[in-house]
Amino acid sequence: LPAPEANDNPFGYKFSWSPKGVLLAGKNDAHFLKNGERVDVAGADLFQHHWDVTLPDGTVFEGYPNRDSLAYITTYGLEGVRTMFRGTLRNANWCDTMDIIKKMGFLGDNILALGNEFSMRYLSATLMGLPEENLEEKVAESFDISIAGQIMETLNWLGLFDPKTREWNHPTAIDCLTEVMLSKMSYQPGERDMVILHHEFEAEFAFGKKKFLSTLIDY
């Protein structure tokens, strides 16, 4: 995540390397244990499973599942544990926005049969099976979201409805999205990123249960 003074885009996120790895991670299934029950989240639904995580200083982030949490039960010798969860933290609105981007088809990795010159607006329309005219309204209607809301503002800011034609090299939808994100969401010289690690443990002793919190924030 960007440090507070560098957090200046509506995604609340920046890249110091290719966004493609981050985007591909958004397609992974997730598995975790909650109150003794296994929970499986399909990759297609990943960004729909998120909730607020409040840190000790009161800062609120979005948390969502990160791949297979169950493997850590054996790794750390925690057989018998009733809850095991590993998640990813992001700034507000990341999950809802990325869910729409995924549903639009922008995480697809098939070569596009569109030639090498087209606009992001044309690509968005093609992926959605919609005409370019009044595209913003039609996209908002398709997902039952407000055209004046945060998600549509973020998609507009990113340039998904930009009519300017540009040249691509053997493009896939995810490669086009990667290129656009790099141009708009890269760290600038001197900007800092931020590392956040937040752990919650509940242990049972002879005298009862006790909860432990460990949070690291560094930038």
How would you sum up the global shape?
elongated
Indicate the radius of gyration in whole angstroms. 20 Å
CATH architecture term: 2-Layer Sandwich
Unreliable spans are none
Q: Largest beta sheet, briefly? A: 3 strands, antiparallel
- The tally of strands reads 9
Structural class: alpha+beta
Specify the number of helices: 7
**What is the level 1 CATH name?**
Alpha Beta
N-C termini distance: 10 Å
β-strand amount: 15-25%
What is the CATH H-level superfamily?
Dihydrodipicolinate Reductase, domain 2
Strand arrangement within the widest β-sheet reads: 3-4-5
> What name does the CATH topology carry?
Dihydrodipicolinate Reductase, domain 2
* Whole-number mean pLDDT: 96
**SSE string:** HEEEEHEHEHHHEHEE
Explain the overall architecture.
The model has no long low-confidence stretch (mean pLDDT 96). The chain is 28% helix and 24% strand. It is of the alpha+beta class and 219 residues long. It is built from seven helices and nine strands, in the order αββββαβαβαααβαββ. Strand 3 (51-54) and strand 4 (60-65) form a beta hairpin. It has helices spanning 20-25, 71-75, 94-104, 120-128, 135-142, 150-158, 173-185, and strands at residues 30-34, 37-41, 51-54, 60-65, 87-90, 117-119, 165-167, 195-205, 208-218. Helix 3 crosses helix 6. The chain is elongated, with a radius of gyration of 20 Å. A three-stranded antiparallel sheet has the order 3-4-5, with no helix packed on it. It has a two-stranded antiparallel ribbon with strand order 1-2. The protein has a two-stranded antiparallel ribbon with strand order 6-7. It has a single domain (4-218), classed as Dihydrodipicolinate Reductase, domain 2 (2-Layer Sandwich), CATH 3.30.360.10.
